[in-house]
Amino acid sequence: MIFSFPGKNSPKIDFEILQTDIFCLFASENTIKLPSEAWLNSIVSSLKMKTNVLVLEEYLEQSPELNITQRWQAGAHFLWLAPRSLSVLLEAPHDISNSYDSLKNFLKSRK
Length: 111
What we know:
Oligomer: single chain
Helix content: 25-40%
């Protein structure tokens, strides 16, 4: 499934990844719209359902190159999370502090 949060409108996302929910930090016409304050709960829910998560920070024409053997991958304009990354996220609620940037920085520092 492809979800988006309020933000600048971007073109339609034209790719899918098996067993992966895609979350866009921008608006896109072919997505399920979610309120911005639901971003972390939404991501955690997908991970709890044993679904991978790809967070796009900006519009990409195609899927980024992913290394699915890792628990997470922090790229230039995306963050990919495997369900097994959930244990790390649940250990650090104060380090994440309810912002996407703090989540991504926290995960980058854990590598």
